[in-house]
Amino acid sequence: MDIRIKSRNTELTDALREYTLDKIKKVRKYFDGILEMEVELTYEKNPSISQSHIAEVTVFTKGPVIRAVVASPDMYASIDQVVDKLERQIKKYKGKLIDRTQQPRSTKLVADLYNNSRSAGEPKIVKVKQFAIKPMTPEAAALQMELLGHDFYVFTNSETEEINVVYRRKDNNYGLIEPIYQ
User: Fold this and answer.
1) Which is deepest, 42, 72, 166, 167, by most CB within 10 Å?
2) Helix or strand or coil: residue 141?
3) How far apart are CA 71 and CA 53, in angstroms?
4) Where does it live in the cell (predicted)?
5) Does this model's pTM top 0.85?
6) Cα gap 126→144, rounded to integer Å
């Protein structure tokens, strides 16, 4: 398992690196399907908030991507809390029954950006993400969305073989968007 530790706006000392590695390695005992982990430690200087030390961990597995972010006044406390949060998410994931026969497709979303004719005042696309769309049930997609901490999730519905979007509603329930071709 590959563990990458990055820092932004803070020095990554040997003591902080060792502490982070010791804590992050504990996550392996809950889930042996981890391929790699990415840890980002950030310091944000903002006097209006006291939660300026941020620990973000992304866990790449054969199935879902699990992500946790915690901010606190102390970096070591942020690391402890993010590991606790990851452990809860992994336990939740393992407790759910997900169809293990789902195989990821090699389908990727590709975006072509032609911003040459845009004026400076108009909003423009500033970031493009590409990811494999996996066939899964809407329930599994909702779980994946929760594990990532996002408000929506794009997936291939394994029942209809169509691209769908599951999203969190304001009433804390989930919504499902299904396409209708005309």
Assistant:
1) 166
2) helix
3) 5
4) Cytoplasm
5) no
6) 25
Structure tokens at 11: 């020095």
How far does CA 98 lie from the centroid of its chain?
Answer: 18
34: β partners: 61
Domains of the chain, first to last: 2-102 (3.30.160.100), 128-181 (3.30.505.50)
pLDDT per position as a tens digit, 108-158? 333 333 444 444 556 777 778 787 788 999 999 998 888 888 889 999 999
The length of the chain in residues reads 182
Assigned token pair, 28: 């392996």
Pairing state between β 163-168 and 152-157? antiparallel
pLDDT at 48 over 60: yes
DSSP state letters, 1-52: -EEEEEEESS---HHHHHHHHHHHHGGGGT-S-EEEEEEEEEE---TT-S--
